[in-house]
């Protein structure tokens, strides 16, 4: 079965080590849930007469995964029904809405329990797993916080809040308008100096006496 483990745990890093590995991408990761929720509210939600929390979470997750795939390509992998980002050789990131406990909302299947407990699974790279999670205000459908969560089973190792240092960018930036082209230059032909001198010597006319 795909959820079977190797019987040992992956290496567990400190909060500092995890954030150091994610550092080059933190500006993008921080704005990712905000931009996905904004896209959901503007484009997806209006298509439904009734809105369910599960449908909303699924749509937001799909928007986040699409943006991550567009940015990171082959480093996004789909294993065991779960999308993961291979941030480094020893760090995997999943994307989840966080519950009241501050932990991802996962149905406790045997595989999910082993995943959360950092037990190595035969179909996953031997790497620590963390969650890029977001807390959503159920009333306003706004992102309250974005966090990187490390856990060892039900125990939270760390929960680091990411704060955007710049305006939220759209998930998919519109194509830049083409730069205006300058009108072609009109070149004026230079007069032949010898021809001009010859015309002056002959009176400048073609009907003169030979």
Please describe what this structure looks like.
The protein is of the alpha+beta class and 210 residues long. The chain has one domain (5-162). Helices cover 30% and strands 26% of the residues. The chain is built from 5 helices and 8 strands; from the N terminus they run βαααβββαββββα. The protein has helices at 15-22, 26-44, 53-72, 110-116, 193-201; strands spanning 5-9, 76-79, 82-88, 91-97, 119-121, 128-137, 142-152, 155-162. The strands form 2 sheets. Strands 2-3-4-6-7-8 form a 6-stranded mixed sheet. A two-stranded antiparallel ribbon has the order 1-5. β3 (82-88) and β4 (91-97) form a beta hairpin. α2 crosses α3. The longest helix is centred in the first third of the chain and has 20 residues, at 53-72. The chain is globular and about 50 Å long. The relative contact order is 0.18. The model is unreliable at 172-177 and 192-210 (pLDDT under 50).
């Amino acid at each position: 079965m795909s959820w079977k483990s190797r019987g040992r745990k992956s290496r567990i890093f400190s909060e500092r080590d995890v954030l150091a590995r994610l550092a080059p991408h933190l500006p993008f990761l921080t704005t990712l849930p905000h931009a996905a929720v904004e896209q959901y509210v503007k484009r997806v939600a209006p298509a439904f007469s009734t809105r369910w929390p599960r449908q909303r979470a699924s749509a937001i997750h799909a928007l986040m995964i699409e943006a991550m795939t567009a940015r990171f390509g082959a480093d996004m992998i789909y294993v065991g029904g779960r999308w993961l980002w291979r941030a480094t050789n020893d760090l995997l990131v999943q994307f989840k809405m966080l519950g009241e406990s501050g932990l991802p909302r996962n149905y406790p299947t045997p595989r999910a329990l082993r995943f959360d407990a950092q037990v190595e699974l035969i179909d996953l790279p031997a790497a620590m797993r963390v969650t890029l999670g977001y807390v959503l205000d159920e009333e306003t459908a706004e992102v309250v916080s974005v966090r990187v969560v490390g856990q060892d089973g039900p125990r939270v190792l760390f929960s680091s809040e990411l704060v955007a240092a710049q305006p939220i960018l759209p998930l998919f930036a519109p194509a830049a308008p083409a730069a205006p082209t300058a009108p072609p230059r009109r070149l004026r032909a230079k007069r032949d100096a010898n021809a001009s001198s010859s015309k002056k010597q002959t009176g400048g006319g073609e009907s003169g006496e030979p």
